[in-house]
Amino acid sequence: MPTVAVLTDSTVGLPETILNNLKIETVAYYIHRGQEVLRDLVTIQREEFVQWMKTARFAPTTASPGPADYLNAYEKLAGAGAEDIISIHMSSKISGAYQAALIAQSLLVERNPSLHVEVVDTRNAAMCQGWMVMEAARAALAGFPLSQILAAVKKMIPISHMVQTADTLKYLYLGGRIGKAQNMLGSMLNIKPLIGLENGEIVPLGRAHSRNQAYQQMAEIVVDAIGKGKARIAYVHVGAQREVEKIKELVETKVDVVESLISELTPALAVHSGPGTAGLCYYPVEK
């Protein structure tokens, strides 16, 4: 265990091998499916949940971990030898995780005043948040102090971006996360919406008449942002592996990608995105 521990939410969607290799601690979100209370990637896994969603007759809901969940995780990390913790969370505009972690941080001061915790609102989600977590964990393993790790993560916040598409915005609407994409609801017949996150809030980025056209637009958005520079890109999906492989092939003929991975959204995010969602999370890498 490095002296700086890295903690985040289950919703980042990082592959298990990366979580283990980089010593990243996660706290699971809650999913309420009727009378069932499930824990993201603990009592419900991706494939099972996606199959259920395809025939579901009602919409499940989600809840972020509570202060006690984060407090327990912080104390577990302290018990394993951590001296400092960086706690990295989904946008506070679409989740209560950041606020819950702040409460846990304040409670920790009373119980373990020597442990320093920095709580970060990424103003993003999924693998945009995941890239920040990975970079923080790599820096922690390399022995960098908390102050430098925190500065590096904060530098990534305004330059990390998500673009995704789906056949419907129904799931975002039902889950109350649709944000500024609300005005696209009335015109979605035979249209593929492109949405993203801007300053932590879901926003419309465009619309296309087919998935292939949507993927072309995604590639153009990345090219415009990266230019002749380099990027790290995660291709994200909900039960749509073949679709993100198409996006990957299209994007990487146009952009110099120094690192990439494919990540399936966890059940707690699939609730809001829906089966068939495909997109990417990217950020430019300094030359």
Rounded average pLDDT: 91
Over all CA atoms, what is the radius of gyration? 18 Å
What is the tally of helical segments? Answer: 10
Strand elements, count: 13
Question: What structural category do the secondary elements indicate?
Answer: alpha/beta
The largest sheet, given as strand count, sense and whether it forms a barrel, is: 6 strands, mixed
In N-to-C order, the SSE pattern is EHEEEHEHEHEHHEHEEHEHEHE
Under the CATH scheme, which class of the largest domain?
Answer: Alpha Beta
Strand order across the biggest sheet? Answer: 10-9-8-13-11-12
Shape designation: globular
CATH fold name of the largest domain: Hypothetical Protein Tm841, Chain: A,domain 3
CATH architecture of the largest domain: 2-Layer Sandwich
- Helix-residue proportion: 25-40%
Strand content: 25-35%
| Number of domains as seen in the coordinates | 2
State the end-to-end CA separation. 31 Å
Unreliable segments (pLDDT under 50, ≥5 consecutive)?
178-188
Task: Walk me through the topology.
Blueprint: E1 4-9, H1 16-21, E2 24-27, E3 30-33, E4 36-39, H2 46-55, E5 61-63, H3 67-79, E6 84-89, H4 97-111, E7 116-121, H5 126-141, H6 146-156, E8 161-165, H7 170-174, E9 192-198, E10 201-208, H8 211-226, E11 230-237, H9 241-251, E12 256-264, H10 267-273, E13 278-285
Parallel strand pairs: 1-2, 1-6, 6-7, 11-12
Antiparallel strand pairs: 3-4, 3-5, 8-9, 8-13, 9-10, 11-13
Helix pairs in contact: 3-4, 5-6, 8-9
